[in-house]
Amino acid sequence: MIDKIRSLFRHKIRFSDANSANNRRWVGKGLTALNCEVEWRKDGEEDVAHYDFQSGHFGIRVQKNTPNVLLSFLFIAEAPMLEINNVRQLCNQFNLSSDGPRFAYSINEEKNLINVHLFYSLLLDEDRVRAILSRAMTDLFGWQNVFLRKLGDLLKNQHRQNDNDVELTSKQLARELFLLSQQELTHRSSPLVWRHNEVRKLNLKQWMDTACDLHSFVPSELTIMTDKEETLNERKMIEDFEFHSLLIADKVFRRKSATLNLTFFSPSEPDRRRYATIFVQQAEGDGDALRYRITSTLMPMSVDANGADSHKQTQPMTVSALVEYDLRTDKQQSDEFRYMWQDAKDKIEKGEVDSLSDEQRLIANTVLPDVAKSLYRGKQLYLQGRYYEAILHLENAFYFLHGSFNELYGSEQENYFEVCYMLGFCYNSLGNYQRAFYYLTFTIGLNRITFTEEYINCLVNMGDFRALAYINNIISELENAYGKGDDGDAPEPHMQAFISFLHRRKAYIYVEQGNFDDAEALLKSLLNDPYSSDFALKELAYLQRLRT
């Protein structure tokens, strides 16, 4: 007995001993002592031991460049896809409570199920490997039993209440926040439905809705002018008409340009015809896509004797957007996304956050594949300046995230606000300021300079009377924070750039309002501002022309 006690103190545990070679040997030794039959498999450069212990199937990954091994107990529970939010919340709750094992889940798209897994990072040593493994696996069995019981109780309570309110159940489990009121519960929205914008084919109905903000137009005639002239009169054929078919065939450009003349009416005014001209033209692209530009002009309606038509309807409206016909197959695009998604997760796990691309930062912690794919592609298109196409993907993600906002935490909420910002930016770029304003209102109060600048741009672009007061309020707050003139602390460079932006927007509004004296005084003060001097010179010249 004394010899056994002495053996415990004979060697100090050294991290240098816990390398991948020793860990593999120790794992084999410990599992043999536990009467487990081991099957070793290669996964890249790492070895993984698969074995059964007390009716449970386990795995141990011998990791490179780390002293720890990763014990896994896979498929400890499963649930239908509809319970995704419940499973996520329960995993989060258990991970907060556990100081060792970690819960994770995966999605089986083929069977539409959620599978739950347990992982335990272990530091082994040769003398105690049997005890360490035995204790760890016993702990995992215990955690599995508790998880299954909690999940069963959670689903049973929700089904009894006939309400799938995940936010409520998470509060009950955490016992930190009050229950939602019964009235709020009775006004819960219907179960979330994945909203799908067609993103592979760009058609006329989609363009009129997204780019021209005409949700319920009724087409009556479409004239197609290419090498010849053709007329369509069937509504469904007109709505489904694909722009790329004008220029592209067999994945190559067959012509450089084409024109469409559209006649349509609004269901609220079936007797008044409206007209639009759409010009489609080849543009420069890269090897993976054929790029072309769509430019549409919506003809204004004449004002009737009573002046009943809105200002928007009586003004011509032109929208232009650059789009691409992707030469890659659906599988190639899907493979790219899945690779980037998994790569993002791997980098997060290894602590390599700085090496993530902008698209990967957005999807790294996203669970649902459909949402992650829309976020990835939407961000990619946004960064390329392909705003119309970006909207189609980003709105798919928005409608899901918006409907489940109360169940979002941390980076998921940040993703939601980032999507709102990008959608606002894209619609602003297309000149659809009302829709841009809708999305940008979600970003108010987040104290992000980029969000605030885009919100102000939208207010100014749409001629909103609140823009000047909003800008003055921010300027006042910044002056209180930094002081005025030479007496205050100098703002950081990024804050100085923001302050300059506010003054440029303020000067622009003065000019728009015809307040030329105040505009001139402000613009002259901006001549000494390195961020605004070019703008000030151009605006002063424009102001001079207005006064002559």
What oligomeric state do the depicted chains represent?
single chain
Radius of gyration: 31 Å
CATH H level, superfamily name of the largest domain: Tetratricopeptide repeat domain
CATH classification class of the largest domain: Mainly Alpha
Biggest sheet architecture: 6 strands, antiparallel
Helix proportion range: 40-55%
Q: Any low-confidence stretches, pLDDT <50, length ≥5?
A: 1-13, 161-198, 305-311
Percent of residues in beta strands? 15-25%
The total strand number stands at 14
From the helix content, strand content and strand pairing, which structural class follows? alpha+beta
> How many independent structural domains?
3
**Shape estimate:** globular
N-C termini distance:
106 Å
